[in-house]
Amino acid sequence: MDVTNVTAAAETFTCNAYLAEGDRTVLVDAGAYEGVVDAIADHTDALDAVVVTHQHSDHIAQLDAVLDAFDAPLYAYADHPRRDGALDDGDQLFVGDEPFDVVYTPGHAGDHVALVSETTLFSGDVVVHDDGAFDDGSFGRTDMPGQSRERLIESIETLLDAMGDGVEHMYAGHGGTFHGDVRDIVETALSRAERREPKYPGE
């Protein structure tokens, strides 16, 4: 499976949006980068599906533009006017060349899901490799209305339970990608979240 961050050229705030090419070409999150449609078109003429990890604006601001350009079905946990398929905890979704389990991971967002296969994690914002607060294992912010550190901690524990030891590719909603021992990164994120200290100064 070939995975490309199609928002990598963005100079304004956006999530990482990942184009997974293989037997089934899928976009994971659309992002807020106005050039994302052209960036996708540089790699493929068609999308088999668009999946959103959650519906914060930095993940879906360009969703309508992507759906209009590629006429792809939309899969999401929460309701959306253009949703074609509802995702639920325990569902399975084929992305690229692999089947992924849908893992419900609220805390940063009430509709957050992660995607886990035998080799790969699309973690959205529940855990990231690096984000300016921590390197080598960080977690989504929980200081805004509707967010919960306690639910996030539970979600990271659930994510660890869903992951096998062979997961070696991590594509997070922010920061860099990671290839290696993904369980170690997620366990580090959990230990930091469990301190229950503010993630950023001034929180």
Structural description of this entry:
With 203 residues, the chain is of the alpha/beta class. The chain contains five helices and 14 strands. The strands form three sheets. It has a six-stranded mixed β-sheet with strand order 1-2-3-4-5-6, with no helix packed on it. α4 (149-162) runs antiparallel to α5 (182-193). The longest helix is centred in the C-terminal third of the chain and has 14 residues, at 149-162.
Topology:
Blueprint lengths: L1 E4 L12 E4 L4 E3 L7 H6 L7 E3 L5 H4 L2 H8 L3 E3 L6 E4 L5 E4 L2 E7 L8 E4 L3 E5 L2 E2 L9 E2 L9 H14 L6 E4 L5 E2 L2 H12 L10
Helix pairs in contact: 4-5
Number of strands: 14
Q: How many alpha or pi helices? A: 5
Pattern of helices and strands: EEEHEHHEEEEEEEEHEEH
Major β-sheet strand ordering: 1-2-3-4-5-6
Termini Cα gap? 39 Å
Shape: globular
Mean pLDDT: 97
Share of β-strand residues: 25-35%
Helix fraction by DSSP (H/I, runs of at least 4): 10-25%
Q: Nearest-angstrom radius of gyration?
A: 16 Å
Report low-confidence residues grouped into runs of 5 or more: none
Largest beta-sheet characterization: 6 strands, mixed
What structural category arises from helix and sheet content?
A: alpha/beta
